[in-house]
Amino acid sequence: MQELLNEVLVAMQSNRLRIALTGFSIAWGMFILVVLLGSSGGFQRGLYKTFHLEIDQIVRITAGKTVIAWNGMDKGRQLKLNMSDAQAIERSPIQHIRQVCPMAVQQMEVSSGRNRLTVPVTGCHEDYLKVDYRQLTAGRDFNRNDMSQRAKTCVINQRLSRQLFQDKNPIGQYVKIGDLVFTVIGICESTFNEDISLSVYIPLPTMLAIFRPDGTINGINLVVENLESAQHNEHLERELHDLLAARLGASPKDYKGVMISNSYEQILSAKKMIAGIGIFVWIIGIATLIAGIVGVSNIMLITIKERTRELGVRKAMGASNTHIITLVLLESVFITLVFGYIGMMSGVVLTQLLDNALGTAIPMFQNPTVDFWPIMGCNFIMIAAGLIAGYVPAKRAVSIKLVEALTS
How confident is the model at residue 3 (pLDDT cuts 50, 70, 90)? Predict the structure, then answer.
């Protein structure tokens, strides 16, 4: 192997300028491919963040007024959800549901000292904040003890915290919700943009026991997963609607009595568009790289023609066709790898500099760097390109007749 590499290096030294110019086309093609991958990745991540495609998919179920008479009952009836409906969904064999999150909300007066505000108070279970697109910034979320003991604890959002407590740390402080005192255990903020609303969250069992003795809830939110097509999504919605319509006494065709809100189709279309951008970038980058591959193949053909006599002497001295093919392919792969790595690393450095310079200044362009697997893909492409570029010249080298080679 060492001998073969020495032969390759000696052959390349005799064509340094030609190889350098040809190698530049490989380096440029790989550089363009990496920069395009980094830029498209940054654009894709920006789109995911802007359109909130990276968060869990939520299906929201609410009850409204019926618009179709059913089983002797007139239309215009106000349907109501309760906890048994949420439990029925949990017990059902309906697939793709990861978490069931019932909630109840009503406007109530919340006060601390002289500060009094009327805000929506939401009764919910633990881990509901992410369903409402919020995240904790201080304190803790509700736990099972809060639920089982119907604790008078609450989580408030940052804007309400500023309204009630100004710059004071609200964790451990008390607020009045209605006529009862609750302890603030956590602060949350919107996952998207700055909050423009005021929000309070309390344990759902506490809400039902104190403020909703009739047990009614406003909605059921479902965290769903593994929906791979629009057909799966439609089937899920139909199963949910049929289950709740039968429980609430509504027509299976009444989509106003049982309302299901789901943005899956829009999310799926956006994800397909983003994936299409990635595929398009790969096509453009590889097409640019092909120009370099053709250049390497051409330089190898010219080299073979110039070394016709040398190859003839090698064959006369007993060199096998396999040896000559290996020699040509090694030279081609060596040129492709060396200049390809130069182009690839230059692209990686440029995308890293772009990331450091831009940061989060452009919301639609986030972290324009290249991930590990695309880099591995580039390595594979470079090796394959070298083999492809050297194949035709290698076949040409072994097809030279010995007499022609020695008399050339």
Answer: low
Instruction: Assess contact for 175 and 111: CB atoms under 8 A.
Output: yes
Determine phi and psi for 218, rounding to 5 degrees.
-90, -25
Q: Are residues 246 and 325 in the same domain?
A: no
Of 214, 236, 254, 263, the C-alpha closest to 81 is 214
pLDDT of res. 147: 95
371, 282: one domain: yes
What secondary structure letter does DSSP report for 129? T
| Strand stretches in 167-235, DSSP E | 174-177, 180-190, 200-203, 216-217, 219-224
242 and 102 housed in the same domain: yes
What distance in Å separates the CA atoms of residue 13 and residue 9, rounded to the nearest whole number?
Answer: 6
Decide if pLDDT at 178 tops 60: yes
The 10s digit of each residue's pLDDT in 155-167 is 999 999 999 998 8
Rounded to the nearest 10 degrees, the angle between the axes of helix 372-398 and helix 264-306 is 30
Residue 218 domain boundaries: 57-262
Q: Are residues 112 and 196 in the same domain?
A: yes
In contact, 228 and 92? CB cutoff 8 Å: no
* Beta partners for residue 221, in sequence order: 60, 101
Please write the tens of the pLDDT for every residue from 240-260. 999 999 999 999 899 899 999
Q: What own/partner pairs with CB < 8 Å and gap ≥ 24 does 243-246 have? A: 243/88, 243/89, 243/92, 243/94, 244/61, 244/63, 244/81, 244/85, 244/89
Domain total in the chain: 2
Q: Closest Cα partner for 175 from 193, 191, 196, 198?
A: 198
229-265 residues labelled b (16+ CB within 10 A) or e (exposed): eeeebeebbebbbebbbebbebbeebbebbbbebebe
